[in-house]
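tool=predict chain=A
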Amino acid sequence: MRRVNEIQQQQSIIIALAEGKMSLFKTVPPNVVQSIRAFRVTDLQAEANRLGQHFLYAYCAEATTKQQVLANIAHAFHFPKHFGKNFDALADCLTDLAHKSGPQPGFIVVIEQLPNTPKFDKEARETLLDVFRDSADFWADKKVAFRVFYSFQ
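tool=predict ok
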């Protein structure tokens, strides 16, 4: 376990050096899923542009079900039409599909206003965030930054 932590710290240092010392993310790990908190979407988008990373944004305030949330994400992220609107399909699109398309410069993902409804409850939100956490781990293994920022309604 200690060796894994050392490797993760080294990866963080390598990515931080590549991103530059004045990065908006100097205190944000390169592979993380966290609340958007004090970050503004426009600042995150500008930082993605500055770093040459993909910026993926989905606004989910109108969604009330898992299928609607996944459809919003799929549409916003330009997933293929055959996207299955389930958590496994989301994981595949965030990892394998992007990885197979060639080298990736990094990702900054923003998912705003995830619903809190009977058909998209706390368990569904946590499952969704777990998919993004697993994707962050996938990209960490490939030494590619994958930062996810989210907010709830």
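The first helix runs from residue 2 to 19. The mean pLDDT is 88.
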